[in-house]
Amino acid sequence: MSDTGETAIRPAAQADLRAAQALLDLSRVLMGITLRAVAAAPVALTVPQHRVLLMIATDGPRRVGALAEDLGVNQSNASRIVDRLVGQGLVRRTSDSDDRRASLVELTREGRRVLRAVHEHRLAALLDVVAGVPEGAHGLAPALEQLSAAAAEGGPPGVDERPRVDGAPSSAAGRPPRPRPPRGRRHR
Question: Which of 89-103, 116-130, 134-148, 174-188 tops mean pLDDT?
């Protein structure tokens, strides 16, 4: 600590700071692209509803409690989101073979179609961005793949997972999907 009470910060290399700032700027641009893609969905869709669809596409059918935990909301909020998605025909509740008292939430064909539409909108916007790179995408893809891998190794769990728009679970680089917690009753 310094005499002023501020925490001493080790100076980073100028190139590292510039790269980190560029990534922050890029993340804002990417968030904007994502928000516009969700807004352009063929049905009225909120960002939390889109997140639920992506979680189910990534991990397969899920209990509402697991969705609530991953969203960081209470179970009644997650249940209301799921109810709206059920009402739109984007997900359905099915019985859980491990616990007949519980239900799982899974994507419908329409839910997969909406995810595909959002994905295609995002992809088109990103292709426009890549087309604007003066030297083209030849060196861009390998650099972004390295950044993604580095972030996945040092980032929070699930950061490297990529949902498939056909509804089947998948993850990056051939890694198995994130393990799901046991489906038994949870006490809190």
Answer: 116-130
Instruction: Give the N- to C-terminal CA distance of the chain in Å, as an integer.
Output: 40
CB 106 within 8 A of CB 94: yes
In this structure, is residue 178 part of a structural domain?
no
pLDDT in tens, 88-120: 999 999 988 888 788 899 999 999 999 999 999
58: CATH: 1.10.10.10
Q: Is the pLDDT of residue 63 over 50?
A: yes
- Containing domain of residue 125, as a range? 26-147
Rounded Cα distance between 43 and 28, Å, is 24
